[in-house]
Amino acid sequence: MFSGSMVALATPMYADGGLDWDSLHNLVEWHIEQGTNAIVAVGTTGESATLDVNEHLEVIRRVVDQVAGRIAVIAGTGANSTSEAIELTETASRCGADACLLVTPYYNKPTQEGLFQHYKAVAKAVAIPQILYNVPGRTAVDMLPDTVRRLAAVSNIVGIKEATGDLERARDLIETLPEGFAVYSGDDATALELMLAGGRGNISVTANVAPAAVAQVCAAALRGDADTARTIDQRIQILHQVLFVESNPIPVKWALREMGRIDGGIRLPLTSLSPEHHATVREALRTAGVL
Predict the structure, then answer these.
(1) Is 111 annotated for ligand binding?
(2) For this structure, is 253 an active site residue?
(3) Residue 131 annotated as part of some ligand binding site
(4) How many domains does the chain have?
(5) How do residues 61-117 score in pLDDT, each as one tens digit?
(6) Which of 106, 119, 161, 253 is catalytic?
(7) Which of 119, 133, 184, 253 is catalytic?
(8) Where are the annotated coiled coils located (predicted)?
(9) 133 assigned to active site
Protein backbone atom coordinates (compact mmCIF):
# COMPACT_ATOMS: atom_id res chain seq x y z
CA MET A 1 0.00 0.00 0.00
CA PHE A 2 1.17 3.54 -0.76
CA SER A 3 2.18 5.60 2.22
CA GLY A 4 4.20 8.59 3.38
CA SER A 5 4.86 11.80 1.48
CA MET A 6 3.17 11.86 -1.91
CA VAL A 7 3.76 15.08 -3.80
CA ALA A 8 0.91 16.49 -5.85
CA LEU A 9 3.41 17.53 -8.49
CA ALA A 10 3.08 20.88 -10.25
CA THR A 11 3.45 20.62 -14.02
CA PRO A 12 6.28 22.91 -15.23
CA MET A 13 5.46 25.23 -18.10
CA TYR A 14 7.18 27.95 -20.06
CA ALA A 15 5.82 31.49 -20.05
CA ASP A 16 3.81 30.73 -23.20
CA GLY A 17 2.15 27.74 -21.52
CA GLY A 18 4.15 25.06 -23.30
CA LEU A 19 5.18 22.08 -21.21
CA ASP A 20 8.75 22.22 -19.89
CA TRP A 21 9.98 18.64 -20.08
CA ASP A 22 13.50 19.40 -18.82
CA SER A 23 12.16 20.98 -15.63
CA LEU A 24 9.76 18.08 -15.16
CA HIS A 25 12.69 15.67 -15.38
CA ASN A 26 14.67 17.70 -12.85
CA LEU A 27 11.74 17.93 -10.43
CA VAL A 28 11.21 14.17 -10.48
CA GLU A 29 14.89 13.49 -9.74
CA TRP A 30 14.89 16.08 -6.96
CA HIS A 31 11.89 14.47 -5.30
CA ILE A 32 13.46 11.03 -5.40
CA GLU A 33 16.68 12.43 -3.90
CA GLN A 34 14.76 14.29 -1.19
CA GLY A 35 12.88 11.24 0.04
CA THR A 36 9.42 11.71 -1.48
CA ASN A 37 7.61 8.36 -1.37
CA ALA A 38 5.32 8.79 -4.39
CA ILE A 39 4.66 11.24 -7.18
CA VAL A 40 1.13 12.17 -8.20
CA ALA A 41 1.42 13.08 -11.89
CA VAL A 42 -1.21 15.43 -13.32
CA GLY A 43 -3.39 15.65 -10.28
CA THR A 44 -5.37 18.84 -9.85
CA THR A 45 -2.23 20.67 -8.63
CA GLY A 46 -0.68 19.55 -11.93
CA GLU A 47 -3.30 21.60 -13.80
CA SER A 48 -5.14 18.58 -15.13
CA ALA A 49 -8.07 20.83 -16.00
CA THR A 50 -6.06 22.80 -18.59
CA LEU A 51 -3.89 20.08 -20.14
CA ASP A 52 -5.36 18.42 -23.18
CA VAL A 53 -5.68 14.64 -23.17
CA ASN A 54 -2.46 14.03 -25.12
CA GLU A 55 -0.45 16.32 -22.83
CA HIS A 56 -2.02 14.79 -19.74
CA LEU A 57 -1.07 11.28 -20.77
CA GLU A 58 2.39 12.29 -22.00
CA VAL A 59 3.24 13.73 -18.58
CA ILE A 60 2.17 10.45 -16.96
CA ARG A 61 4.22 8.42 -19.46
CA ARG A 62 7.33 10.47 -18.93
CA VAL A 63 7.11 10.41 -15.15
CA VAL A 64 6.53 6.64 -15.09
CA ASP A 65 9.43 6.00 -17.48
CA GLN A 66 11.80 8.26 -15.57
CA VAL A 67 10.92 6.97 -12.12
CA ALA A 68 11.44 3.42 -13.39
CA GLY A 69 10.07 1.81 -10.26
CA ARG A 70 12.23 3.73 -7.78
CA ILE A 71 9.14 5.15 -6.05
CA ALA A 72 5.42 4.88 -6.75
CA VAL A 73 3.72 6.92 -9.47
CA ILE A 74 0.04 7.73 -8.98
CA ALA A 75 -1.68 9.15 -12.05
CA GLY A 76 -4.39 11.76 -11.76
CA THR A 77 -7.20 10.46 -13.95
CA GLY A 78 -10.36 12.02 -12.57
CA ALA A 79 -12.89 13.77 -14.78
CA ASN A 80 -16.47 14.98 -14.61
CA SER A 81 -17.34 12.54 -17.39
CA THR A 82 -17.28 8.89 -16.34
CA SER A 83 -16.31 7.74 -19.83
CA GLU A 84 -13.38 10.19 -19.89
CA ALA A 85 -12.24 9.05 -16.45
CA ILE A 86 -12.28 5.45 -17.68
CA GLU A 87 -10.27 6.36 -20.78
CA LEU A 88 -7.65 8.25 -18.76
CA THR A 89 -7.43 5.48 -16.18
CA GLU A 90 -7.08 2.77 -18.82
CA THR A 91 -4.25 4.63 -20.53
CA ALA A 92 -2.47 5.43 -17.27
CA SER A 93 -2.62 1.74 -16.41
CA ARG A 94 -1.09 0.82 -19.78
CA CYS A 95 1.63 3.42 -19.19
CA GLY A 96 2.66 1.58 -16.02
CA ALA A 97 1.30 3.85 -13.29
CA ASP A 98 1.08 2.13 -9.91
CA ALA A 99 -2.34 3.60 -9.06
CA CYS A 100 -4.76 6.30 -10.12
CA LEU A 101 -6.21 9.21 -8.15
CA LEU A 102 -9.70 10.28 -9.21
CA VAL A 103 -11.19 13.57 -8.09
CA THR A 104 -14.94 13.71 -7.63
CA PRO A 105 -16.74 14.85 -10.81
CA TYR A 106 -16.70 18.62 -10.64
CA TYR A 107 -19.40 21.15 -11.62
CA ASN A 108 -22.18 18.71 -12.50
CA LYS A 109 -22.78 17.96 -8.77
CA PRO A 110 -23.83 14.31 -8.86
CA THR A 111 -25.86 12.80 -6.05
CA GLN A 112 -24.24 10.37 -3.62
CA GLU A 113 -25.65 7.54 -5.72
CA GLY A 114 -24.16 9.16 -8.81
CA LEU A 115 -20.76 9.33 -7.12
CA PHE A 116 -21.02 5.68 -6.12
CA GLN A 117 -21.94 4.57 -9.63
CA HIS A 118 -19.23 6.76 -11.20
CA TYR A 119 -16.41 5.30 -9.14
CA LYS A 120 -17.79 1.78 -9.34
CA ALA A 121 -17.88 2.03 -13.13
CA VAL A 122 -14.26 3.20 -13.37
CA ALA A 123 -13.08 0.50 -10.97
CA LYS A 124 -14.98 -2.19 -12.88
CA ALA A 125 -13.52 -1.03 -16.19
CA VAL A 126 -9.86 -0.83 -15.09
CA ALA A 127 -8.20 -3.17 -12.59
CA ILE A 128 -5.49 -0.73 -11.43
CA PRO A 129 -5.63 0.33 -7.74
CA GLN A 130 -7.69 3.51 -7.43
CA ILE A 131 -7.78 6.25 -4.80
CA LEU A 132 -10.85 8.41 -4.31
CA TYR A 133 -10.30 12.16 -3.98
CA ASN A 134 -12.74 14.37 -2.09
CA VAL A 135 -12.14 18.14 -2.26
CA PRO A 136 -15.55 19.86 -2.09
CA GLY A 137 -14.01 23.33 -1.84
CA ARG A 138 -12.88 22.96 -5.45
CA THR A 139 -15.47 20.64 -6.99
CA ALA A 140 -18.77 21.74 -5.40
CA VAL A 141 -19.57 18.12 -4.52
CA ASP A 142 -18.86 16.40 -1.21
CA MET A 143 -18.47 12.62 -1.13
CA LEU A 144 -19.94 11.71 2.24
CA PRO A 145 -18.48 9.03 4.54
CA ASP A 146 -21.34 6.60 3.90
CA THR A 147 -20.56 6.71 0.18
CA VAL A 148 -16.87 6.13 0.86
CA ARG A 149 -17.78 3.12 3.00
CA ARG A 150 -19.88 1.70 0.17
CA LEU A 151 -17.03 2.15 -2.30
CA ALA A 152 -14.52 0.57 0.06
CA ALA A 153 -16.18 -2.76 -0.73
CA VAL A 154 -14.92 -2.50 -4.33
CA SER A 155 -11.70 -4.51 -4.36
CA ASN A 156 -9.47 -2.17 -6.38
CA ILE A 157 -10.62 1.03 -4.66
CA VAL A 158 -7.88 1.14 -2.05
CA GLY A 159 -8.02 4.55 -0.40
CA ILE A 160 -9.24 8.12 -0.27
CA LYS A 161 -7.54 11.48 -0.36
CA GLU A 162 -9.68 13.44 2.10
CA ALA A 163 -9.05 17.14 1.50
CA THR A 164 -11.78 18.75 3.59
CA GLY A 165 -9.41 19.44 6.49
CA ASP A 166 -12.10 18.06 8.80
CA LEU A 167 -10.21 15.91 11.28
CA GLU A 168 -13.37 14.56 12.87
CA ARG A 169 -14.51 13.25 9.52
CA ALA A 170 -11.07 11.80 8.85
CA ARG A 171 -11.03 10.02 12.21
CA ASP A 172 -14.49 8.62 11.56
CA LEU A 173 -13.32 7.25 8.20
CA ILE A 174 -10.17 5.73 9.71
CA GLU A 175 -12.18 4.04 12.45
CA THR A 176 -15.01 2.70 10.28
CA LEU A 177 -13.43 1.76 6.95
CA PRO A 178 -12.17 -1.79 6.42
CA GLU A 179 -8.67 -2.65 7.55
CA GLY A 180 -6.25 -1.98 4.71
CA PHE A 181 -8.31 0.83 3.17
CA ALA A 182 -6.07 3.90 3.34
CA VAL A 183 -7.06 7.41 4.35
CA TYR A 184 -4.67 10.07 3.05
CA SER A 185 -4.62 13.74 3.88
CA GLY A 186 -5.17 16.23 1.12
CA ASP A 187 -4.80 19.20 3.45
CA ASP A 188 -1.24 20.06 4.47
CA ALA A 189 -2.22 22.08 7.53
CA THR A 190 -3.96 19.09 9.18
CA ALA A 191 -2.02 16.24 7.59
CA LEU A 192 0.19 15.57 10.61
CA GLU A 193 -2.76 15.07 12.96
CA LEU A 194 -4.56 12.88 10.42
CA MET A 195 -1.51 10.60 10.18
CA LEU A 196 -1.15 10.43 13.96
CA ALA A 197 -4.79 9.33 14.04
CA GLY A 198 -4.07 6.44 11.69
CA GLY A 199 -3.90 8.01 8.24
CA ARG A 200 -1.42 6.50 5.79
CA GLY A 201 0.18 9.61 4.34
CA ASN A 202 -0.12 13.07 2.86
CA ILE A 203 -0.80 13.91 -0.79
CA SER A 204 0.88 17.25 -0.46
CA VAL A 205 1.16 20.63 -2.11
CA THR A 206 3.84 21.79 0.35
CA ALA A 207 6.05 18.87 -0.68
CA ASN A 208 6.55 20.64 -4.01
CA VAL A 209 8.84 23.18 -2.32
CA ALA A 210 9.89 21.36 0.89
CA PRO A 211 10.07 17.69 -0.09
CA ALA A 212 12.61 16.60 2.51
CA ALA A 213 10.76 18.22 5.41
CA VAL A 214 7.38 16.82 4.39
CA ALA A 215 8.91 13.36 3.95
CA GLN A 216 10.45 13.60 7.44
CA VAL A 217 7.15 14.71 8.99
CA CYS A 218 5.34 11.81 7.35
CA ALA A 219 7.96 9.25 8.37
CA ALA A 220 7.93 10.42 11.99
CA ALA A 221 4.14 10.53 12.17
CA LEU A 222 3.74 7.08 10.65
CA ARG A 223 6.11 5.54 13.17
CA GLY A 224 4.21 7.30 15.99
CA ASP A 225 6.94 9.81 16.87
CA ALA A 226 4.61 12.74 17.43
CA ASP A 227 7.21 15.03 19.02
CA THR A 228 9.64 14.77 16.12
CA ALA A 229 6.86 15.13 13.56
CA ARG A 230 5.47 18.24 15.24
CA THR A 231 8.92 19.83 15.61
CA ILE A 232 9.65 19.47 11.89
CA ASP A 233 6.13 20.40 10.84
CA GLN A 234 6.25 23.59 12.89
CA ARG A 235 9.10 24.84 10.69
CA ILE A 236 6.99 24.51 7.54
CA GLN A 237 3.55 25.39 8.91
CA ILE A 238 3.86 28.82 7.34
CA LEU A 239 4.09 27.16 3.92
CA HIS A 240 0.86 25.25 4.55
CA GLN A 241 -0.83 28.65 4.86
CA VAL A 242 0.82 30.93 2.29
CA LEU A 243 0.79 28.39 -0.53
CA PHE A 244 -2.96 28.97 -0.59
CA VAL A 245 -3.06 32.80 -0.55
CA GLU A 246 -4.46 32.42 -4.08
CA SER A 247 -5.92 29.39 -5.82
CA ASN A 248 -3.60 26.40 -5.92
CA PRO A 249 -1.29 25.95 -7.87
CA ILE A 250 -0.72 29.69 -8.39
CA PRO A 251 1.41 30.26 -5.25
CA VAL A 252 3.34 27.00 -5.41
CA LYS A 253 4.32 27.53 -9.04
CA TRP A 254 5.50 31.05 -8.24
CA ALA A 255 7.46 29.66 -5.28
CA LEU A 256 9.13 27.01 -7.45
CA ARG A 257 10.10 29.72 -9.90
CA GLU A 258 11.54 31.80 -7.07
CA MET A 259 13.57 28.76 -6.04
CA GLY A 260 14.91 28.42 -9.59
CA ARG A 261 13.24 25.05 -10.14
CA ILE A 262 10.79 25.94 -12.93
CA ASP A 263 9.91 28.72 -15.33
CA GLY A 264 6.90 30.86 -14.51
CA GLY A 265 4.34 29.40 -16.87
CA ILE A 266 0.77 28.76 -15.81
CA ARG A 267 -2.29 28.35 -18.00
CA LEU A 268 -5.33 30.55 -18.21
CA PRO A 269 -7.73 31.00 -16.57
CA LEU A 270 -5.10 30.83 -13.81
CA THR A 271 -2.65 33.72 -13.75
CA SER A 272 0.67 34.29 -12.03
CA LEU A 273 0.74 35.21 -8.35
CA SER A 274 -0.43 38.77 -7.68
CA PRO A 275 2.45 41.13 -6.83
CA GLU A 276 0.98 41.97 -3.42
CA HIS A 277 1.66 38.36 -2.33
CA HIS A 278 5.24 38.09 -3.58
CA ALA A 279 6.92 39.28 -0.39
CA THR A 280 4.67 37.06 1.75
CA VAL A 281 5.46 33.89 -0.17
CA ARG A 282 9.16 34.74 -0.47
CA GLU A 283 9.45 35.32 3.28
CA ALA A 284 7.63 32.06 4.00
CA LEU A 285 10.13 30.18 1.84
CA ARG A 286 12.97 31.79 3.78
CA THR A 287 11.37 31.08 7.15
CA ALA A 288 10.91 27.45 6.17
CA GLY A 289 14.54 27.23 5.10
CA VAL A 290 13.93 26.33 1.48
CA LEU A 291 15.03 29.60 -0.13
Answers:
(1) no
(2) no
(3) no
(4) 1
(5) 999 999 999 999 999 999 999 999 999 999 999 999 999 999 999 999 999 999 999
(6) 161
(7) 133
(8) none
(9) yes
